[in-house]
Amino acid sequence: KGGLRDPYAIDDLITQFEQKYSINENDPNMWKAFFRSKAEYVTVCNLCIDRLEQEKLTRHIRYPGADRLTRSGDISSDDEEDEVVFDPIIVLRSSNEGKMMGKWLSAARKKIGGDFPRPESRKQMEMYAERLKRKKNRDAKRVMNRYRFIEEKTTQVSDDERGWGRVRLDEPSRLMLRSWVMEAKKNAKKRFDARGDAIRAQVKQTLLKMPPEDDWFYKREMRLEGNSIDVEGDYLTLERKVKETGKAAEIRKVESGCDSFRQDIKMKLARKKMEMETSLSEIHGKVQIDADLRARELRRACKELKREHEEEEKRAREEEGAVSSEMVNRHKDSMYNIEQLIVKETEKTEMEWNRIDNERRKIYAQEEKILLRSVKDRDTQSSLDIGRIETNTWEEIVWGEKEWRSRALGWLNIAVRKVEEKAEEDRRNEKKNEERKHRQKRFKE
Q1: Which of 25, 67, 91, 423 has the fewest CB atoms within 10 Å distance of its CB?
Q2: 275-313 burial: b if 16+ Cβ within 10 Å, else e
Q3: Nearest-5° Cα angle at 67, 54 to 50
Q4: How far is 60 from 72, CA to CA, in rounded Å?
Q5: Residue ranges of the chain with pLDDT lower than 50?
Q6: 3-class secondary structure per residue, the chain
Q7: How many Å apart are CA 109 and CA 103, to the nearest integer?
Q8: CB neighbour class for 5 (10 Å; exposed up to 12, middle 13-18, buried from 19)
Q9: Residues 119-139 pLDDT 10s
């Protein structure tokens, strides 16, 4: 920065990039273009670099015997448990890392001297593998203890204290949640579309500022790339409209099938209810007729019995001069029994009719419940199908749109910078022309 080396220059560039675009912007092409346009470098020749590297190498070399003697406390024991144990890493010898490590190993052995591998190397590797095994066992035990502790704590916490517990939503809450999710998706799509429209408008405005006669500055390839991006953006817009039209047609087909199924179920329920009412009306008529016939028989029997009682009482008056109280009570009891039998038969008929009516209506209620359940299941399946159609269409649109936006933003970042540079250069040239005209005018004067 300012012609001097700054170790925090990359942080400043990242801050400027986030301020210009957004914190969530992670497009690599935009970052590359921004970095090329804003980054400042300090160039150093190859000779200077080689000299600095050579000084670093010589500075870190320690020749044997130059330092103090090694003491017993300088070397830690291999059996210490607090030693940092690294997990094993497999590196291919043919890879760049493997070649680099091989060169380092050869140089280290050459510097140390002697025969390799050392006789004690196998024993050291076995000891290291044993420490690695103990470390893994300790880590596994620590993880199990942590899981057991969390499980104990979660079982101790009740739903009414700190844990939320299981949430049960009623139908209004479920509808409200579903409505909120749909509204959030709709707003996200609106923001996505608005961003795409803004990029398309910026591409078109930038291309208007890059006429073919200025190809000496912008380069013909860059202008043609912008035209290609513009045409592709228009094609994606048209393709999106076609896909949305197809999506709307598929959704209408699903909704039409659901409405037709609902209408069929409604007509089926109405037909079943009419059949039930007709059947109950016929059964009620038959039961009523049977009840009337039985009541007439009982009334005739009652009249006949009453007539017999009157004749018996008349004979008793003629023979004995008066009717005994025993006979009168017996006649009253028999008449009362006949009347009670008529009442019981009427109640029995009503109870039978209520039983038949309840059974038929219960059967109809079960059939109605099953049919309404099928309607609900069909509505749920239709909602899932519509959601799947919308998701698939949206994913198809977003995949191509994101890829196009990535290229468009990369091109815009370079093109806008060039347009700004061209405008700045035009202003400088215009200013120079005005100054030249002013000097020429003063010279003529």
Answers
A1: 67
A2: ebeeebeeeeeeeeeebeebeeebeeebeeeeeebeeeb
A3: 0
A4: 24
A5: 65-66, 72-85, 157-162
A6: CCCCCCCCHHHHHHHHHHHHCCCCCCCHHHHHHHHHHHCCCCCCCHHHHHHHHHHHHHHHCCCCCCCCCCCHHHCCCCCCCCCCCCCCCCCCCCCHHHHHHHHHHHHHHHHHCCCCCCCCHHHHHHHHHHHHHHHHHHHHHHHHHHHHHHHHHHHHCCCCCCCCCCCCCCHHHHHHHHHHHHHHHHHHHHHHHHHHHHHHHHHHHHHHCCCHHHHHHHCHHHHHHHHHHHHHHHHHHHHHHHHHHHHHHHHHHHHHHHHHHHHHHHHHHHHHHHHHHHHHHHHHHHHHHHHHHHHHHHHHHHHHHHHHHHHHHHHHHHHHCCCCHHHHHHHHHHHHHHHHHHHHHHHHHHHHHHHHHHHHHHHHHHHHHHHHHHHHHHHHHHHHHHHHHHHHHHHHHHHHHHHHHHHHHHHHHHHHHHHHHHHHHHHHHHHHHHHHHHHHHHHHC
A7: 10
A8: exposed
A9: 777 788 888 788 877 877 777
